[in-house]
Amino acid sequence: MQLVVISPPHSVAFETQLATKMLAAGLARFHVRKPGWGAAETAAYVAEIPGQYRARLVLHGHHALVKELALGGAHLTAASRSAHSLPRLRAGQTISTSFHSLAEIKQHRRRYDYVFLSPIFDSISKKSYGAAFDLGEVAATLQKLRQRPGYRPQVLALGGIESTNLAAAQQAGFAGAAVLGAVWQSPDPVAAFRTLQSVIG
């Protein structure tokens, strides 16, 4: 099971240094989500992360930078999905997105390398964003999808992920989990990431 960390939407003190420490500790993917930022700000942010980790960075906007800076991939928002065109990337760079229903995953599963499904648990960073899924139904659906030839994409749990429920997400059949609040609302984000990492072993 892989862990993905999503950046906070607004800047946090020493954010890129903290992200670098998580990447050095084995973070598989770091999603850079800064809704209000322009391309120059995003590129400057990426420049603060050592080159050996760039292939693990995924951008939620300014997708041209993914190819230009040799990053890991592009994550499509609902708005960018509605454009009906996928960004032009290099071989090996991933395309991901977020869905909020199992029906969307079934319908669009072949277009993406991996997707987030949310909210699985009550969100930590968005207090009014409650869990919307029955884990038994999720487990049955994911099992059926995995049995199909050429199974794609990997489905990662998002929403309220923390150390106390990460095992439940794993048991439901998720290939991974994406984390935001449990890391960035902690007084020690790197320690919080390591705790999550220890749960999945």
From TrEMBL:
Gene3D superfamilies named among the record's database cross-references: Aldolase class I (3.20.20.70)
Superkingdom assignment: Bacteria
SUPFAM superfamilies given in the database record: Thiamin phosphate synthase
Coiled coil: none
Pathway where it operates: Cofactor biosynthesis; thiamine diphosphate biosynthesis
InterPro entries linked to this entry: Aldolase_TIM, ThiamineP_synth_sf, ThiamineP_synth_TenI
Keyword Cell membrane recorded: no
UniProt entry keywords in alphabetical sequence: Thiamine biosynthesis
Pfam families linked to this entry: TMP-TENI
Coiled coil recorded as keyword: no
Thiamine phosphate synthase/TenI domain span: 4-183
Alphabetical list of PANTHER family matching this protein: THIAMINE-PHOSPHATE PYROPHOSPHORYLASE (PTHR20857), THIAMINE-PHOSPHATE SYNTHASE (PTHR20857:SF15)
Entry protein name: Thiamine phosphate synthase
Taxonomic placement: Bacteria, Pseudomonadati, Bacteroidota, Cytophagia, Cytophagales
